Amino acid sequence: METKIIDYITVKLKEYAEIPSVTGNETVFLERLNREFITHEGMSRRTVTNDGKGYYSLLKCGNGPDLVFCVHTDRVPDPKTNEPYKNKIKQNGEFITGQLDNIISIAVMSYLNSIGLKFNILFTTSEEICFSYPQIDEVMQLYGMVPVSVDIDVYSQETDISSGYITIRNKSFSREYDQETVRLLRKAAEENDIPVNNDSGLSHDEVFHLMRAVPGRNGAHLGLPIYNYHTNREAVSVKAVLNMISLLKAVIEKNEVETEEEPSALLSPVSDNYK
Prior knowledge:
Elements: H1 2-17, H2 27-36, E1 43-50, E2 53-61, E3 67-72, E4 77-78, E5 83-84, E6 90-91, E7 95-98, H3 103-114, E8 120-124, H4 133-143, E9 146-154, E10 166-167, E11 171-172, E12 175-176, H5 179-191, E13 196-197, H6 206-213, E14 220-227, E15 234-237, H7 238-255, H8 264-267
Parallel strand pairs: 3-8, 3-9, 9-14, 10-13
Antiparallel strand pairs: 1-2, 2-8, 4-5, 6-7, 7-15, 11-12, 14-15
Helix pairs in contact: 1-3, 3-7, 4-6
């Protein structure tokens, strides 16, 4: 079973790697994800554009659950050429390598969607220039959901990440995450024997920037430890990917609620020129 899951993840990563999606040019990738992610019964999609370009896309479950998982669609360019990296995804048993930030998290969420799980997911843009937080803020204003960033965390190769732990912190730098959500995530990890690291790695995530920019906003962060940050040689432990899938599956199944219809104005796909 685990081999089939990793095969699925690797195939998705290779497909995603073929789509250039550097910051400011995420539209094609967003459109691809809108086609790929299924709106299961009781789910709806909200797609927002800004000056004709993809701004964000939200997959939503009726009136619940309350969490929204945030994954960013933009990647950094090769600093030598300022063009998209030539990205070769490889899986060698213990690690998956390539430019993984943040297509690895999108592949994880794609797997969960493919097995029929219902959850809220927000595909954001412009995260790499620290400006995806207004998109999260808008979704929070509209629906009152609590954001959970699902992203990578940066580790040096002097740190052993092969055991497969994931990161769930109380805070990032000086900003404290929503403690109720942190406890929920940690409880799910404990109940499913998932190893967690709470106090190392760099966490410049979307929710951190939201908390820093918008007073009163809060959420949480789940991190996949990687090496070789912002290169096309990033490496993530296969065990960590499997553990992230297990954790998210447990959280989603535990918090899944009956969905009900909402006003059609919020259910139907829209195109806003949001500034």
